[in-house]
Amino acid sequence: MNVKRYTARLIKSAWAGLAIVALSTGFASAEPVKTITPGKLTVAFNGDMPMTGFKDGKLIGTDGEFLARLADRLGLEIEPMQMEWSGAVQATKQGQADLMLGSMGWTKERTEVFLMTDPLYYFATTLLQKKESNITTFAAMDGLTIGTVTGFTPIPEMKTIPGIKEVKLYDTSDAVIRDVVAGRLDLAVLDPALVEYALLQNPDWGLHQLPLTPEPDTFPIMSTKYYSIISVWPENKELYAALNAELLKAWDECLNVEVMAKYGLGADFWFMGPTVDYRNGVDRPADWKSPASPEKCFTK
After folding, report:
1. Residues 285 and 143 in one domain
2. 205 with 130, same domain?
3. CATH number, domain containing residue 71
4. How many domains are there within the chain?
5. Which of 15, 20, 32, 82 lies at a C-alpha separation of 20 to 30 Å from 104?
6. CA 111 from centre of chain
7. Is 53 left (phi over 0), alpha (psi -120 to 50) or beta?
8. How far apart are CA 87 and CA 274, in angstroms?
9. Is 226 in a helix, a strand, or coil?
10. Buried/exposed code over 25-53 (b: 16+ C-beta within 10 A; e: otherwise)
11. Predicted confidence band at 31 (pLDDT cuts at 50, 70, 90)?
């Protein structure tokens, strides 16, 4: 056997195999995906748990830890940028952050500002209130005061609820919850995951949250089941595509279920999309179907 010729054939075959792998994954090299700071992923978040937080040098929470796992797969190191929600929006719009996240719901209006990924999970509107109150309908809000965080999606509709006494806006979710506990607010609309996490840790508050009965013809936003997404700086289509590719794999591998279950949010309804995919024809193809976790994710 001609050793040199045989070795040459092996090397040629190896390079051919690497080329096939590169083409099949969509990446021609092992270089990290393009970001504002090479090799780093600058993440804007507000630190509301259980969605996002920063501890011991790591992003934590349902959204934070999930993103950290994706970043690791992409060979990127997290660069945290914690700030209020409105500040995170501006930082990501202006390219000071690569992306923002934290139970951020998809809306058509936001597609004009950001590139919005496939969902991490789904959520719907709930009403935070005292346990002696059991309000679940728009009609029952007559004469009441309701609060939420500045910049949150439902605000315009909240202001049109018939008979609503006042809509109060706050800088943080903590401030909203404090006013519900103190009786200065009758109701609050906040991130359901944040509220569930807080109530589990603080049963002495005497609060609970109840799902709002949908009225889609009159209040389409507050009646919507939301896609919880990652908003990407619109100039970075490469990062956007890479995150979507990893998200697709993560759903099939139950990664989102695994991470959310660590924070007490592993029930199957967090991972079942809306009946009709309203992103279709907006920022997704007409035949796009929202992902759902396979049955294996919920069987032991």
Report:
1. no
2. yes
3. 3.40.190.10
4. 2
5. 32
6. 15
7. beta
8. 29
9. strand
10. eebeeeebbebbeeeebbbbbbbbbbbbb
11. confident
Structural domain span for residue 61: 40-122+227-298
pTM of the full predicted structure?
Answer: 0.72
Confidence band for 300, pLDDT divided at 50, 70 and 90: low
Are 171 and 293 contained in the same domain?
no
Q: Looking at residues 252-271, what average pLDDT do you find? A: 90
Whether 174 shows a pLDDT value over 80: the answer reads yes
- Range with the poorest average pLDDT among 4-13, 93-102, 169-178, 250-259: 4-13
DSSP string for 27-84: -SSSPPPP-SSTTEEEEEE---TTT-EEETTEEESHHHHHHHHHHHHTT-EEEEEE--
Q: What is the pLDDT of residue 255?
A: 97
Taking the C-alpha atoms of residue 27 and residue 165, their distance in angstroms, rounded to an integer, is: 55
| 18 inside domain | no
Q: Are 253 and 70 in contact (CB under 8 A)?
A: no
Q: Contact, 100 vs 43, CB < 8 A?
A: yes
- Which among 233, 195, 229, 197 has a CA at the least distance from the CA of 88? 233
Taking the C-alpha atoms of residue 235 and residue 233, their distance in angstroms, rounded to an integer, is 6
Q: Do β-strands 58-60 and 53-55 pair in parallel, antiparallel, or remain unpaired?
A: antiparallel
